[in-house]
Amino acid sequence: MADLHDGPMVHLSRIYTRTGDDGSTGLGDGSRRKKHDLRIEAYGTVDETSSCLGVALTQGLPEGLADLVRMLQNDLFDVGADLCVPGEAGERLRIQPTYTERLERAIDTHNAGLEPLNSFILPGGKPGAAWLHLARTVCRRAERLVSHLMEVDGEAVNPEVLRYLNRLSDLLFVLARVANSGIDVLWKPGGGNA
After folding, report:
1. What angle do CA 75, 138, 120 make, to 5 degrees?
2. Per-residue pLDDT averaged across 71-80, rounded?
3. Rounded CA separation 51/65 (Å)
């Protein structure tokens, strides 16, 4: 089996193809689905998560986070590639447990330097942190869509994708806290009525 991480996996010579003008889009197995199909929604939302991370990168993240965020963007393209090929992948890219394990190590490393929380925090703070929080919520939506897709399409979805997205949203929460330099805005229940 070829190493799928060596060199480009696609070649784009034209940006438009006109094949989607009928409201359908092609999957990695050659089949076509409506653009509002749950599978398309799922990997489109994964792409949206990556775009939020791209904006976070423009906002001046703390030292060491930018490389990690770029790696996460690359992972998200892998997740999208996995989701766009239903069922058996053959030699196609699939998310493996090592992806999720890498996220867990990053969570443990970055969370170790943060103060424990005794309240929920409000998303926001520094611009990079705010975008990481937005990426986290978009990632949670992608996770919900994949969970629904697994219910509908069953064995045609790699369950490791769901685990990866779950752990990614946890990591993005931790990274947002790191990007805020440990200065979290805490939720004050009923605080808006004071």
Report:
1. 110
2. 96
3. 16
Q: Residue 24 pairs with which residues in a beta bridge?
A: 34
Query: Can you tell me the distance from the alpha carbon of 156 to that of 86, in angstroms, rounded to the nearest whole number?
Result: 5
- Read off the DSSP letter of residue 10: -
Tell me the pLDDT tens digit for each residue of 155-180: 688 999 999 999 999 999 999 999 99
Instruction: Judge whether 36 lies within some domain.
Output: yes
Its pTM stands at: 0.85
Largest Cα–Cα separation, the chain: 63
Residue 164 lies in a domain: yes
Name the amino acid, one letter, at 108: D
Residue 132 lies in a domain: no
- What residue type is assigned to position 182 of the chain? G
Residue whose pair of structure tokens reads 């937005």 in the numeric block:
134
Q: What is the DSSP string of 121-183?
A: B-S-SSHHHHHHHHHHHHHHHHHHHHHHHHHHHGGGS-HHHHHHHHHHHHHHHHHHHHHTTT-
Tokens of 48: 């949206």
CB 76 within 8 A of CB 46: yes
